Amino acid sequence: MAERIIRIATGLIRDSDGRALLVRKRGTQAFMQPGGKIDAGETALQAVLRELEEELALHLHPKDLVTLGQFSAPAANEPGFGVQADLFAVTRSVSPKIQAEIEEMVWVDPSAPGDIILAPLTRDYVLPLCAALSDEGPMAETDCGDVLTRLQNPS
């Protein structure tokens, strides 16, 4: 039986030290980047802007985000499902505040997140991408292409 897919949009938020913001939703164990399901009739960009406002009280504009790509992984909280995630980097400093279904948020070193439970997408794609981008310098669309190619096609 084919895996059922949930389409989501997520945000990679980094601080000035290159740490990534991860959240844990109420009633779950895995930490992941903020975001959520894309509603019917909604673009991925509209969804991530809505989700970041709902979950973290972030009022962002499309120009505050850079598209990093689309990634697939097993869903962290829905057994038998996979997620297809559109990942966007937030390019300005923000002050997130926990709201909605968020139980906890942490800032982690993407190269050494500690002993927290990570969602597969976060563990396998988002944190390695974040670490690679931190090594490459400031966030910009041109930084992402080579890094994404290396992550998606490891030698």
UniProtKB/TrEMBL annotation:
Domain Nudix hydrolase: 3-131
Keywords: Hydrolase
Cofactor: Mg(2+)
Keyword Protein transport found: no
Domain of life: Bacteria
Any Pfam family matching the protein: NUDIX
PANTHER family in the record: 8-OXO-DGTP DIPHOSPHATASE-RELATED (PTHR43046:SF2), GDP-MANNOSE MANNOSYL HYDROLASE (PTHR43046)
This protein's name: NUDIX domain-containing protein
